[in-house]
Amino acid sequence: MKAKAKAKAKDAVFGAVAILLTVLLIMLVKRDISGSSGASQQTMIPNAPLSGLELEAISELKDLEKTNLLRKKFPESYNNNTTNLKDLSYGLSETGLPVFWQLEIGIFHSEEEAQKLAKNIRSEGFKVFVEKENINDKNLSIVMLGPKLKKQRILIDKEFIDKRYNIDSKVLQYVHSK
Question: Could you give the CA distance from residue 173 to residue 80 in angstroms, rounded to a whole number?
């Protein structure tokens, strides 16, 4: 009986050591494959964008044709006297929170119409919601898209939705309501 117990204990210890060595070997191989030299992989995360800076990728367009194309597509985004983009940055509000943008697609008296439009736009892959407001004792349903951090993304969505649904949506700064 003691011999069987010793054999079982020996097998259990051997199994545990084998598993431990296998895990250690996998960790070493994984470390060699990933090219890690002991530095934390978390240090590979890029820094967050600085607030108040223009989007460099857009503001440094060297090709004048590209700039003119963007100017034609988004005239409301450009200063009148220059080809420089207006502030489309990751700015901060007065309270120190990031500025977000949203698109007011339409205002409806009928919630059913608003939900129908929202459903159609959602089927195109957009994140849309219907906000209910009581203005001058009238219940209104407002179809909104967003919020998004980059104003340029909202402008691109606006162009697509306006053409697709033949409407004139409005770009608004997102204001969190309690």
Answer: 21
Distance CA 58, CA 4 (A): 75
Beta strands in the chain, from DSSP E residues, in sequence order: 101-108, 128-135, 138-148, 170-173
pLDDT digits (tens, 9 = 90+) for 15-70: 888 898 898 888 887 776 655 554 445 555 555 554 444 444 444 444 444 555 55
Comparing C-alpha atoms, which of 124, 123, 121, 172 is closest to residue 147?
172
Assign domain 100-178 to a CATH class: alpha beta
Every domain of the chain and the residues it spans: 2-42, 48-88, 100-178
- Global model pTM greater than 0.70: no
